[in-house]
Amino acid sequence: MVTVMRPGTDDGVSDGGATNGRAGLGPRAVRAVIALGLAWVVPLITHPLRLDVLLPFLVLAGTMAIQRGATGLVDRFVLACAQLFGAACVFGLAMTMWPGHLKPTLVAGFALSALALIAAATGRLELAPRPATPARRTRRPADALTALATAAVAAITLVPYVARDLGGRLGLPLAGEDIARHYLLYDVIGRTGGYLFMRPEALRPFVPDEELNGIANYPQGLHFAYAVLGRFVASTTGQTSASAAVDVMVWLLVGTFLLLALAILWAVRRIAGPGTSAARLLPVLLVAGAWLVLGDPVTILSRGYPNELAGLACAAVLTALVVRPLPRLGEQTVTVALLLVGLSFSYPLFLVYGGVAALWWIRHARLWRFWWGWLAAAVVTLIAAIGPLTAASASGGSQLLLNGTARVVDRPATLVLLGLAVFAVLLRRGMRAPSHRAALFALAVAFTLAAGLGLYQTATIGHPVYYFDKLLHLLIVVCLCALGGLVRFLPGVGVALRVAIALPIVAGLAVAGGEWHTTPVAPGVKLALGKDRGSPEAARDALLMSRMFPDGGGAVNVDLMGSPWRNWSATLGAAALQHNYRYFPAWSGLLYPGSAGKASTMDDLDRLVRESPVPVRFFVHDPEASLLVVDGDKPHRPNVRPGQPLPVAFGDPAAPTNIAAARALAAKYPTKVQVVYATPANP
């Protein structure tokens, strides 16, 4: 009898079989059982030690370890983050229904168990190290340069946030208004333990009835991920106040931008090709990195749009994988599927781009040949439809025509970037390469979506607005990814000359910005130098009010301490922090000083107090502060100067000041009105 010796086994018996005729667990099965045990033992140990914050990093490390198509740490990190976000969006559907909700031990236990099972199924629990391949060795300098470029972007980005106190950090996105509702979703999901579109009644105590459907059906994948991470942080620090929670959210917002930056720089390197030298890659990363921290992308951070940042990051990774797919078809399929889910659950507007780009790869991969390809397509379509369907149920037919507070995109700079991207793809007969044809297709899809919406808005309302700029953000990201093709520019030129050619582009981006690139200094420069402050005084007022009355104190809290924009933003911020947003909209019209806001009289203020379902608490400080007028139809505001910041004395001199009005109402409604003479916090 001949005994066949198989690699990696003893005595001619394969792993998982029988030894000497006796049934038993093979080494792979034993390792799987041990890994599953550790998946629960580790969270059970970290929780009493208040070390739960380490568990997300352990899950990330485990996801990086099971990658099979990655060739370096940067590859593994980017792919792991993309996969985890999509998986968290899907996992949230189950977590919303189970009784444990967001308990760190349960979340980490199930996540680590899933990783252990995947590692066992794919053979990643094997102890023998894999030999280094030439492909891995050639990528290391480029990986190191990509990591260094990301570190430089991170250092520049973090300066204005590290240098500010919590009020200063929160004040940046608070000027964009939307951050208050993002915090509301993040906070309520953390309290109730799951998606609110699956149980909107859990949101009802926190929002007005007329806004329940819109807020409950807003895409919540990122808010859910933030809430999970927030629970891990709170479990470690023991700090559960609104100030601590919003501080965590602001840092998660910054972290999301840094992940977007890494995704774009990684996509540039990947599209450049595996054999690209660091010398050729350096000037391209310089241009892409500068565009991130100086141009329009950084305004998405400063205005506080976390969902859009996550959607753009998913689009960047998806673009890179469509242009240069992973070597293993199964891993590529899973990653693309999770990226589409991530787009759906974070920013459905970009899902059209993601779906069409994915179809390009599906066609070239001939995925329809496999039965599991049809199954994957059906499952992904079903899950990815959740985001657009819920968003559609919360929106009116004219949603794409609405305006917003996003900064208008720099049109000339975007055209220059588009030209560079097309040049990078077509350079030196680039259309011969399948990757360059895929990159050109991605550019065409992103451009067509933006141009199509711009034409529709112009034909309907006369000019492009809000969502057109959002699609321009998508176009910018796809263009930045496609810049990887520029490594083929002037192949015989040294690195010094390449950098010298790139520097004028960076300088031109830095010296101006604005819609037509005519406003001195780029938005990123203003942010880094502290010229873009947002609304720090409003944020500090909101934090002060929430610290004095964490749950609102059974009243609606109205800020009348300072200038009109400060009062409006602070009242909005405090309403979210105190879980009192339900009562804010009624006061928004009175406080809002913009063109859409109606000039209010003492009678209007009296009516709001009289009709308020809860007591009213006015916070006052500055004796000059005013907002009321005598005649609401013909308001007289003598201190307002066109082009200048609105003054503290915003109202009609003949009308009561804020303090006088608050005192009069407190005297008229002694059981319903309270006046708090507060001292605003200093930085």
Can you give a write-up of this model?
It is built from 27 helices and five strands. The protein has 683 residues and is mostly helical. It folds into three domains: 96 residues, no CATH class; 367 residues, no CATH class; 140 residues, no CATH class. Helix 27 links the parallel strand 4 and strand 5. The longest helix is centred in the middle third of the chain and has 31 residues. The N terminus is likely disordered. Keywords: Membrane, Transmembrane, Transmembrane helix.
Domain module count = 3
Strand content: under 5%
Major sheet description? 3 strands, parallel
Quick one: how many beta strands?
A: 5
Please work out how many helical segments DSSP would assign.
27
What coarse outline follows from CA principal-axis ratios?
Answer: globular
Which whole number gives the mean pLDDT? 91
Q: Structural class from helices and strands?
A: mainly alpha
In helices, the fraction of residues equals 55-70%
Tags for this model:
single chain, 683 residues, mainly alpha, 3 domains, three-stranded parallel beta sheet, two-stranded antiparallel sheet, globular, disordered N terminus
